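Translate sequence into structure tokens.
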Amino acid sequence: MIHTGPAGETPPLLNLRATPLAGVTLPLLAGSLVHGDTDLGSKPLQEDRCGAVRWRHDGQWLFGQLDIADDQASAEALVSQVRQGYQDLFRALRETGFTHPLRLWNYLPRINADLEGLERYRHFNQGRQQAFLEAGQAAFEGAPAACALGTPGGPLCVRVLAGRRPVLPLENPRQVSAYHYPSDYGPRAPTFSRAALADIGEGRLLLLISGTASIVGHATQHAGDPQAQLNETLNNLQALIDVANARSAAGFRLHELHCTVYLRHTEHLDAVRQALAQRLGADAPLLHRAVYLHADICRRDLLVEIEAHAMAPGALPS
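Result follows.
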């Protein structure tokens, strides 16, 4: 099927912030999901489904959506559901020819809840990594950017942005790569890169930054202090921007990012906004674009997580 908007207007494939959250149960605390954000894609869209995966693409980029019924019965059931869901997703990418995932969004009900002695997020990581390996997708170096947040209920929601060509994965020199985390964080490490750079044509690059938090090395920093965690998170975002600019000669800037800020506790909203203004200046575009959502973070001691994206002139290294 091919779709266009009113009077032949072509709708965007993806609003980089609002579209992945469609159907996700997370309260909006402040900001607008669409105001001041960026859209990707400007060609007529084709859409269909492959098994449980609904997808649409514009010939260059594909956006896929998967909602998995959450079976709370057992750890084995959760691992199996995640594994099967990701297998379906990778089959959809193969059949459409968009075999390179750039960015994944994962929203897992009760992400920190205990299930048979292990956090649900750690069971999720087992199913996810196994599906990556079985599909021949990069589960370690070269894995796509991603986030994983907790919702109070509903289905497990997985969203993917994929392309026909590889992108450039990026790692943060201040952090151990997530796929190299020690076994303290579960039997299977999280499967994602810290960021990814994609060539979107016309001499422009898209920077997609994974969910980023107050982690140095592999350890959480500043437990219990949302403002200190926010500042450490900004240090990590700046480190990723520095890597992206060094690898591509682009001009990404921290204060110009489009950010989604996830807060574990609603009462921390004012403190986090004040810390952002103090760090970046009250007139920083990031502050006026930022969206704040109430969500659980993948570690119980993390209070803030930020995901971000930006576009800038530049080229990938040949």
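Note: The chain is about 25% helix and 30% strand.
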